[in-house]
Amino acid sequence: MATNVGFNVRSTSVQVRRLESGNINYGYITSLMDWLNRRISLSRGIRDAIQENILEIITNSHDHSGCDFGCYVCAQTYYNRREIEVSIMDFGVGIPSNLIPIYSHLQDDAEAVKYSLVEGVSSRTGKGAKGTGLNVLSQFISLNNGSMRILSSRGDYHLSGSDENIELMTLGFPGTCICLNINIDDKYYFFSDETEDLF
After folding, report:
1. What are phi and psi of 11, to 5 degrees?
2. Cα-to-chain-centroid distance, residue 182
3. CATH number for region 13-183
4. What is the pLDDT of residue 124?
5. How buried is 95 (Cβ within 10 angstroms: 0-12 exposed, 13-18 middle, 19+ buried)?
6. Which residue, among 110, 193, 178, has the nearest Cα to 146 in the 3D structure?
7. Interior/surface letters 129-149, b for 16+ CB within 10 angstroms, e for the rest
8. Do β-strands 147-160 and 71-78 pair in parallel, antiparallel, or remain unpaired?
9. What are the phi and psi torsion angles at 31 (to 5°)?
10. How far is Cα 85 from Cα 47, in angstroms, rounded to an integer?
């Protein structure tokens, strides 16, 4: 279990941290969001939404990847590019293995990875099913004019601003890697109305 939660919030990077399966380090996630918040002008509502949905991605990795040792998280500031990168990675079975058996219209790994961004899509059933994590983060990335890349099995999805690209790779990625690239700019991001719909 990771014990050193209080990393240096003034540092340009958050070193790779393994979050063990079945023992999510919530203090680490809170510290990561504090680190992000010092670099991006976020309202409390947007900050909480991003934190909740990054946490959902980490929880999904624990619950569905089949990877015994959990997932890895890291972050880096690139001041010359005015950009932050946050990466979450596991070496599990991958998104397609979880979604294709449930959603029979999906033809291949690339379609499955893209479909994972649709609101409500989840391999979890019952009360705990959410399927909002990638959807909400992709909305924020589009608004921020950042980018998101998801590699999972043979699926390769790339979102840059509002432009999407999906490819079926010849060689697959052994698990799932999600990279979020967020622009550091002078905008202030906030909930747009009282319904608390994002943006």
Report:
1. -65, 155
2. 12
3. 3.30.565.10
4. 63
5. buried
6. 178
7. ebbbbbbbbbbbbbbbebbbb
8. unpaired
9. -65, -40
10. 16
Q: Are 1 and 12 in contact (CB under 8 A)?
A: no
How much is the average pLDDT of 185-193? 65
pLDDT in tens, 79-97: 888 888 999 998 888 999 9
Token readout for 4 is 């050193």
Q: pLDDT over 90 for what percent of the chain?
A: 28
Distance (Å, whole) CA 177 – CA 67: 13
Sketch the domain layout of the chain as residue ranges.
13-183
**Helix 133-144 to helix 44-64 angle, to the nearest 10 degrees?**
140
The pLDDT of residue 64 is above 50:
yes
pTM listed for this prediction? 0.83
